[in-house]
Amino acid sequence: MKIGTIGTCGIALAAALLAGCSEAKAGDAGISSKTAASSITTNENGCVSKTLVETSVTTNGNLVTEHRRETRTSTDLDGNVLETSTSEYAQSYNVGETGIANFSLKPEESDAEAATNTASFMGLKFGEVFQTTNTVVDPCEPALVRTTFKPKKTLPGFDDYYAYLTPKTHKVVKVCACAKDAVEPGGNWRRHYLIEALEKRYNTWARLRSFRLPYYTFDVAPDRYVAVCLAGASDDYETVVSAWDDSVARIAAEECEEMREEARRNAREKRSLRVKEAQNAF
What we know:
The protein has two domains: about 1-95, no CATH class; about 110-260, no CATH class. The model is unreliable at about 1-30 and about 95-110 (pLDDT under 50). An eight-stranded antiparallel beta sheet has the order 7-8-9-10-14-13-12-11, with helices on both faces. A four-stranded antiparallel beta sheet has the order 1-2-3-4. Strands 5-6 form a two-stranded antiparallel ribbon. It has helices spanning about 10-20, 110-115, 195-200, 245-280, and strands at about 30-40, 50-60, 65-75, 80-95, 120, 125, 135-140, 140-150, 160-165, 170-180, 205-210, 215-220, 225-230, 240-245. It is of the alpha+beta class. It contains four helices and 14 strands.
């Protein structure tokens, strides 16, 4: 998926922008951060493609505005312009009375209750065994196996739901909800309803992680995370919402290594047996 291959530089840059915006107090006005990044690529025919991405995060009173503009220009060997395209993504949201500083555990909610609140996603609990014999290997997640499932409560506009499991014991590591078409992108200058719903669900703010895509993450608990790509998530899906548990992912890595070692041991034993059979035959 594209959401897994976003450049480290872009992630750090976008995170820095959002961090600067988050530090602004509700009473501050006109605080903004801007940056621009460009790239040039040349194809086999010698045509040159130039991409310029401009991003800004502005705080005006209680209103935070995120804006990205991407301009692409293709030229031939002689410098003639073959194609020019521009795309923009923008949204605004209020961080006044329900601002970042006000997100915290509810007074009546203990740490144990908070952990329970993040223990599952789309009805599947992380670390629990998923009973299935129908799994496939996903090249994007080589240490896991994937299966489909249907949650009790589906999301409007979403087409497919996947559970990623540990390869040996089939414990739930990651859960994904995927939509082939962008899910209700809505008008500019409005916070997407999926982002707002997840913020309220987990009592924390989304963090913008890319200056090329509307890609956000949530740190919902130790070792547990949620990610949302609203558009252009992969070759197959436009919108993808995923949640995973790193502690179970480490179990998956251990199981994967155990299976590799078992395969190597079986291969050695098989070869040794063949050598003996051939030796006796000679």
